[in-house]
Amino acid sequence: MQEARVIPLRRADRRRPAPKPPKVDGPIVEPTPLHPAREHPPVSAVRRGIGDALGFAVRRLTGDYPIDEFGFDPDLTERVLLPPLRLLYKNWFRVEVSGIENLPVDGGALVVCNHSGTLPLDALMTAVAVHDNHPRRRYLRMLGADLVFQVPLLGALARKSGQTLACNPDAEQLLNAGELVGVWPEGFKGVGKPFADRYKLQRFGRGGFVSAALRTGVPIIPCSIVGAEEIYPKIGDLKTIARLFGLPYFPITPFFPLLGPLGAIPLPSKWHIRFGEPIATDSVEAGADDDPMLVFNLTDQVRETIQQTLYRMLSQRGNPFLG
Fold first, then answer.
1. Which contiguous run of DSSP H or E holds residue 66?
2. pTM of the prediction?
3. How confident is the model at residue 61, as a pLDDT?
4. Which end of the chain, C or N, has fewer beta carbons within 10 A?
């Protein structure tokens, strides 16, 4: 099997003007339609699916597919990784999305989200929401914890889907290249909090994501997710088992580990993902990312925006499983 072609990331150039359409001399002649007998017959969905599958297999074998410097594989993501996530997104969690117009059509932006759910399915559903609702079907390049990349198969798939380590150098390189980058600053404190603390944001770290946005001059998009807290209600923690496997926690829910593998099926709560208005950072003077007070205030502004949005969304929500 051949190795993929590595396409280096390029720094986004916001000053480059859009190309002008070529000038055409003379009248524009409409193409002559084909005679009905010479038109191509319609291709059935089954034949198209078989053709796509064969084409995908050939590209895998010949290495005729691109990846970037971080290992992101758009071909694999589109064909293999997104379809099963889309089933969860549409049919199980029935995700509704609002504010997609707040994401830039092109260029970099940092999407900052609340984190919850015991298992980080909220990050995956947010990636599907961005890709499937954005007019240009953009990818969300997620920043993940070290633990994600230490698990052999999981780490490889995470890289293939466009994720990378949650550190400022990687985040800044992606943002400078004009990518949409997603971050969940609560980390394990948010995703693993008890069910009694649902929808109460935990501490947002030291504001590293704000420094990355300030250095690159990209907008910060607050993102509020309602519904993820109910998929695995965490009512306890087996700390001894967690330490044994090197995990931040080992959850007890009403159904896990009592029901074994069945207890690992997430509850079908109704989700709503809302992308808030962008917070600009390009007007801040150079070197402001080293000002701890500015970073703290901006971090607190983003956190408070998400928290207040969550409260409003919850006040408008009915049954957590019916919407």
1. strand 66-68
2. 0.85
3. 67
4. N
